[in-house]
Amino acid sequence: MSSFWMIFVGAISVGTVIGCYFLLRWCLSNKTGIAEGESMGHTFDGIEEINNPLPRWWTIMFYITMVWGLIYFLVFPSFSAGHEGLFGWKSSNQGVLSMEESKEATKQAIADGKVIMYDREVAMADEKFGPIFSEIAQQTVEDLMADEEALKIGKRLFLQNCAQCHGSDARGGNGFPNLTDNDWLYGGEFNTIKTTLLHGRQGAMPAWIDTFGEDGIKELVAYVQTLSGREVDAQLAEAGKAKFAVCAACHGMDGKGNHAMGAPNLTDNIWLYGGSERSITETLTHGRAGVMPAWKEILGEEKIHVISAYVYSLSNKPSEDK
């Protein structure tokens, strides 16, 4: 949060409390010109309005809430996520850029006796749910596939951590794989999915514009399109076929890809970045370097075990459900 917004939010918070104080003081003063206890001259349904001040206990309660609001504001400051309140309270460690920095900040806060709310909530969650994940982690994928409650846990973890890229329905999008169609860059076996989640993946499709030039790229694009059954200029495709020998090192001579290298199958008409002529041209010209982050340090192996089972179940549903 910038300094401007810190001051803006802080001024509104404190100003509101101060404003409530002066409003209460104004309401407590008699500005009607009618003595207290006398009739205000208003009667409705037999009920007469009397000029009486607020009850003392009510007034005291108002003062207490104002004092409480100011104390709460100082102990748990709302105007900055990184600002320390009294007694060393902070909502979270701000400015960390990696898991290593986050862990170091947590250790330092503990050593300094500071209360970091986010760290405390994580610790409480681990204490409460850790045994559940430990028990699930002992189950095989076959057991988890038959355990609806375990798969629900995996789904919730997926929605919290993976849906931002792969979508809540796991069908992905441009540059993000569909996890439901049984088409996998690195293989769709349970252990392979788990390895992907644990350690991440780094795409390595190089740019070929310097090697083949624009004309060569056009020829390659034409040939690649024929692999998935599309009709193109035959001469361009034939010229591209000769150049495809370079691509075959990863994709294979038949273009069916290689799980060991994460090279996609070019014959099934399923495209991670789009299969139009324009998209294929862009891929060959500039390359692709998609990144699947590693989640081992973020979620831990036990949670990854159940997420992997959920992801595996998306493309391996029981036959009666298909």
UniProtKB/TrEMBL annotation:
Domain named Cytochrome c: residues: 149-228, 235-315
Domain of life: Bacteria
Quaternary structure annotation from Swiss-Prot or TrEMBL: Component of the cbb3-type cytochrome c oxidase.
General function of this protein: C-type cytochrome. Part of the cbb3-type cytochrome c oxidase complex.
Pathway: Energy metabolism; oxidative phosphorylation
Protein's recorded name: Cbb3-type cytochrome c oxidase subunit
Organism, scientific name: Pseudobowmanella zhangzhouensis
Cofactor: binding details: Binds 2 heme C groups per subunit.
